[in-house]
Amino acid sequence: MRSFENDERGDDGTNRDPPVDPEPESSVEPASIAVDGVSRSFGDLPVLENVSLTVDPGEFVGFVGPNGAGKTTLLRLISGALEPDSGTVTVDGVDVHDVPSKRSSQLVSVVPQDTTLSFSFPVRDVVEMGRHPHRSRFSGPTPEDRTVVERALERTRTAELADRPIDEVSGGQRQRVVLARAIAQATPVMLLDEPTASLDVNHQLETLELVRELVAEGRTVCAAIHDLELAARYCDRLVMLADGEVYRNGRPADVLTGESLSDVFDATATVTRNPITGTETVTAFPNDARVGNHSEDESDRRVSVHVLGTGRTAAGVVARLATAGEWVDVSVGPVTSGDTAAETARSLEIDRLEVAPFESLSPADLTAFEDRVRNADATVVTESVVDSDGTGTRRLLESVETMADAVVIATRAEDDTSREGPIASPERERGVMATPETVLEAIRNALESDRDSARSVVDFDSSETSSSSSDGDSGSGVSAESSND
Ligand SMILES: Nc1ncnc2c1ncn2[C@@H]1O[C@H](COP(=O)(O)OP(=O)(O)OP(=O)(O)O)[C@@H](O)[C@H]1O
Prior knowledge:
seven-stranded mixed β-sheet, about 30% helix, binds adenosine-5'-triphosphate, translocase, Cobalamin import ATP-binding protein BtuD, ABC_transporter-like_ATP-bd
């Protein structure tokens, strides 16, 4: 590996090294990290207990977990800034707590969560500080140092800020300047604590793309990242911390699951694959999002709901019903494998009638669908299904028409609600954003109004509160009427 020990310079401060590499900071040799049985408390508060993990050379590992899980503490232990109560941390085989800080600074650079600096140096000087571990105390910057600094400024798109005082740039700009300083430090290991926290979406992506470039050049990177989707998209591996321990450690798809998010974040979440990035997308709801006016007595009574629809609207209905509590039994289908609604149901382990793409419904599928509709207390049909002209869909709607106890039509704000499908919709009131409360209230209204053929409409995903429905169902955004005509 490149030897920082031998980074000696002459008394005049000039560099006696070979000619300057145009991208000298990219020449670091990869190094591994080994955290072995590390524990750390603050006073009486045990924060990390017997944590062990390894990070391979040239790997990008994300630390995820709820607030206070110990991500920052773990990063500080790896950097050598914080002593463990027990256990060891080695970087490239060197115990970071057993070497002078100059040596650990040659191995590990840090972008902290709080990038506030207590001085007013120009941005270029701040980045240049990253070179200090490579210089003797009294030597000034070498041509190589200057090249590395300019390159780091360019790579983080902070070159245009180079002459401005650090305390006069924005928080997001400062975060990129501190990243530039870490890049200039040219260490084989980089530790980033929430590197995208203050950044706009464009700079978030640019920063993480840059981190991937740095990893491709051989750096080993660990980053605490709250944004689970960005973590899944950019990290090779995720370490999920909870209660001071490593709860899961593995590929993003294995770490981010409905079960782990429920256990660790106390949230009910659907984890689906983003069709564009091909990585995990997380949609979370607080655990047990109880329906507001749902009494204890009612919770004893289970309500079964079948959802007919595809895409985002059906996925939203399914997720919201599933998170309303255990007293709602949800099923969905037919849905095409890979559809958002199918993926959502899969990740929430909801009963679903799934069919292969481009295959027409078999008689067995139709029978299975009809059984579910017949046995459900209510069937939710999404607006696009109601409006569909497809022969297969109309066949399903006929079954709903004849077999469902109660029907709730879920609309989206942007849908054209003027058309009417075979299920005659009553006055389609605009409503509040659909929550488990509004969907379930619609179901309850439908069930109560006329169990034989109740029709109800809930306006899904509208953020506008509108006039109440004609039956005086004020503010709920839900209307229900009997269509016993
Ligand atoms: N210097 C300290 N003194 C006392 N307690 C501390 C100190 N640093 C951290 N803690 C405590 O240790 C726990 C873990 O904190 P840490 O910052 O490591 O969590 P985190 O996972 O990074 O959280 P967040 O996601 O909120 O940044 C918290 O309860 C915190 O209050």
